[in-house]
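Please, structure for the following, as tokens.
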Amino acid sequence: MERWKDISRRSALYLSGGFVTVIILHVFMGIFSPVALAAKFGGGGKSSFMSGLISLVLYCFYSYCTQVILQKLDQPHPWLAWIPVANFYAIFKAGDKPGWWCILLIIPLINIIGGILLVTAWIEVVKKLGKSPWLLLLWMIPLVNFFVLPYLAFA
């Protein structure tokens, strides 16, 4: 019986790890993502509250940036940028990719393929905005990755 509890616990961690991977891919694809900041400042009491607040503020800002990008591309529902899985759907549609690919991002292990497909969608979005797709490489540089999405939205 104890073995099944352990397997159940591992499965829950595995599934939640897949969700965290999706969040990291969505937000910056870098080391200094809101999730990483929250983990760094996490703990109990005030630091836990602050990490939650930092994550919430950054998520709202980057959701707004994504909404502005979707508006620039004349997408029919730019408000989808605010809904956690629906924002992937909106990016896939903006990048002229099938919208059902967003389902791949929430399946453990398959989300690696989904992440690669999300990058291809972002490449198309960046091309439509008239920017160089090489700009997306900046998402992998710590601290610089904070400025890529606002640059795409407001430049």
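Residues 4-33 have pLDDT under 50 and may be disordered. Residues 46-72 form the longest helix (27 residues).
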